[in-house]
Design a protein that fits this description.
The complex is a heterodimer of chains A (215) and B (342).
Chain A lengths: L6 E4 L5 H10 L4 E4 L4 H11 L4 E2 L2 H6 L3 E4 L11 H4 L3 E4 L5 H4 L10 H8 L4 E5 L5 H4 L13 E6 L2 H14 L2 E5 L21 H15 L1
Parallel strand pairs in A: 1-2, 1-4, 2-3, 4-5, 5-6, 7-8
Antiparallel strand pairs in A: 6-7
Chain B lengths: L3 E6 L14 H17 L4 E4 L12 H10 L5 E4 L2 E2 L5 H14 L4 E6 L6 H5 L6 H17 L3 E3 L7 E4 L12 E5 L3 H10 L2 E5 L9 H13 L7 E9 L3 H23 L6 H8 L6 E3 L1 H15 L3 E6 L6 H23 L1
Parallel strand pairs in B: 1-2, 1-12, 2-3, 3-5, 4-5, 5-8, 8-9, 9-10, 10-11, 10-12
Antiparallel strand pairs in B: 6-7
Helix pairs in contact in B: 1-2, 1-11, 2-3, 3-5, 6-7, 10-11
The chains are: A alpha/beta (215), B alpha/beta (342).
């Protein structure tokens, strides 16, 4: 059996440690990077994300098969696109002016599409952004569990989407694939599934109803 | 181990019992009565959280605390929280050192970044500066608390050169906490700057914060600081029975969360999610005195915390319902928690 993909989580704030813990629990090797020196987050890694390796962002990315962006979107401008070139990148960020302020770069269009344009050399998949960090861990369930919930996955590269669907499944959610990164707009703040924790049937219904109302 | 127990309010606008909201002014006068009553039922702390909305009309909690101070002798009084990012640390220090003077040394401050962010546009701050504002201002506030002349330079306010900031406190720094909502980097910051840690737990399983408590202690050690307390702030409502408490609280909770869900990214509560939140694993303390006491005792133990502040009230609950909640919390819940954790 192939070894599990190596995951690098960029961001040690609200969201990053939650995703890192879920990934560790699912058997992935996980590296985590904060804003700078890994020594600054060594204690956080040891106590809050036991098993994760704190690294400089560049080192974490260099060794990773999957890179999860879990930083505030306003700090995305600090990310070097060259670093992520050729990588499979999960965009778990949100553009949420009510909570984070207005960002001029994200006023025109959908946040993940803008992220993907800037990371032109990477395969960007939108996922793990629409379930709150308070709930993401508590609501994770193994495949087949009666109360399992759904999580949306959107991207333009079918192989990348399949890889992330597999990861989301292992992390504890029923993966619902959307047909393109653009279709992933339904996962954004203000969309029908943002902040909601839904079963697959409820999720698919909410997405269909949204599509109908826009048609 | 010394445990302390408090109540927090956001100035939740009272209802009249028939669905009509009371005025902002009457709600504020009621908060004064509630604070005075909190002392009468033996509580250790009464806190007021800064908010700027029609359902939480409470932007100047320090004034309300001063009114309570004038009518009480023992209870400690503080903010819960002060949104320091959109305030001036010098003025916050001055307001609370004044409260400390009025109350004879009973002031406390809990500062926070603000998970409700309505104060940013109101006072002309940019949410994009959220992190820098809090980092700089909390560091300055830590300097001000020491009490000596302050020298400080930064980007978010005018620099200070050997500045004496008055009024001086009579007996050293008043207790100061940082309220943290789930960001481990904020936990480390509290330790680095020497603030006590107040865990604001308003969703999910409280037990997942146990790692934060350990992180705080290890970080204090790393920064060479003495041990400092860990507290818990969570919402709840106490009534004679579980059924009554849930029946009173549920519609108010549902309406409030629904109202702020878009802005805060909360899921709309259902009766099923409410049952989970108010059950043994959730973070709402809603029920009879026995139910609430057991849950508080269990979580203080799991979280290695020595302070519990119940955020009581919810927009639309009546002043009478809040007074009953305060009475039951002070006379039954807290004594029972002390018994359970002894």
């Amino acid at each position: 059996m192939a070894p599990p993909p190596r995951v690098a989580v960029l961001g040690a704030g609200h969201v990053g440690p939650v995703i890192a813990r879920l990934a560790l629990g699912a058997g992935y090797p996980v590296a985590i990077a904060g804003r700078g020196d890994p020594a600054d987050i060594a204690l956080i890694a040891e106590l809050v994300i036991p098993g994760a390796r704190p690294q400089w962002a560049a080192d974490a990315v260099a060794d990773a098969d999957i890179v999860v962006l879990a930083i505030p979107l306003r700090r995305f401008a600090e990310v070097d696109p060259g670093l992520l070139s050729g990588r499979l990148v999960v965009d778990a960020m949100n553009y949420w002016p009510a909570s984070d302020g207005v960002l001029d770069a994200f006023e025109q269009g959908a946040s993940s599409e803008i992220v993907a344009r800037r990371l032109a050399g990477a395969a960007v998949v939108k996922a793990l952004n629409h379930i709150g960090y308070h709930e993401l861990e508590d609501r994770a369930r193994p495949p087949g569990a009666k109360d399992r919930r759904a999580a949306g996955i959107a991207g333009d590269d079918p192989a990348a989407v399949a890889a992330i669907a597999d990861m989301v499944d292992r992390l504890g959610y029923d993966p619902v694939r959307l047909e393109s990164l653009r279709a992933g707009r339904v996962l954004q703040p203000g969309g029908p599934v943002f902040g909601a924790v839904l079963s697959r049937a409820e999720f698919e219904l909410a997405v269909r109803e949204e599509a109908r109302s826009l048609a | 181990m010394t445990y302390t127990f408090g109540l927090d309010t956001f100035g939740d606008r009272n209802g009249d019992g028939d669905g009509v909201p009371l005025s902002h002014a009457q709600t504020i006068r009621n908060v004064v009565e509630e604070g005075v009553f909190a002392e009468q039922v033996g509580l250790d702390f009464f806190g007021i959280g800064e908010h700027h909305t029609d359902f939480f009309p409470m932007p100047a909690g320090d004034l309300v605390l001063a009114a309570i101070a004038a009518r009480t002798q023992k209870i400690r009084l503080g903010s819960a929280v002060t949104v320091l990012s959109s305030d001036d640390p010098v003025r916050v220090f001055q307001r609370y050192s004044t409260l400390d003077a009025i109350s004879g040394g009973r002031a406390e401050v809990i500062i926070g970044r603000g998970s409700s962010t309505e104060s940013f546009p109101l006072f002309g701050y940019d949410l994009a500066d959220y992190e820098e504002l809090f980092e700089e201002k909390s560091a300055l506030f830590a300097e001000l608390l020491k009490g000596g002349p302050v020298t400080w330079a930064g980007k978010t306010r005018a620099s200070l050169l050997n500045q004496d900031v008055v009024p001086h406190t009579e007996s050293g720094p008043f207790p100061a906490w940082i309220g943290v909502g789930g960001n481990p980097e904020s936990v480390v910051r509290a330790a680095r700057l020497g603030f006590s840690l107040m865990l604001a737990i308003i969703g999910g399983r409280p037990a997942r914060f146990a790692a934060y408590s350990q992180l705080f202690r290890r970080a204090l050690d790393k920064f060479g600081r003495p041990e400092l307390p860990v507290g818990v702030h969570s919402p709840g409502h106490v009534a004679a029975t579980d059924e009554q408490a849930k029946a009173e609280f549920w519609p108010r909770w549902r309406d409030l969360v629904t109202l702020v869900a878009d802005e805060r990214g909360f899921a709309i509560p259902t009766e099923e999610s409410f049952d989970w939140d108010t059950g043994p694993d959730g973070s709402l303390y809603v029920g009879s005195p026995e139910t609430v006491a057991r849950k508080i005792a269990a979580n203080l133990r799991v979280l290695q915390a020595t302070r519990f502040d119940l955020k009581y009230g919810m927009p639309g609950l009546t002043h009478d319902q809040l007074m009953t909640n305060i009475e039951l919390y002070g006379t039954q819940v807290v004594p029972r928690v002390r018994e359970l954790i002894a």
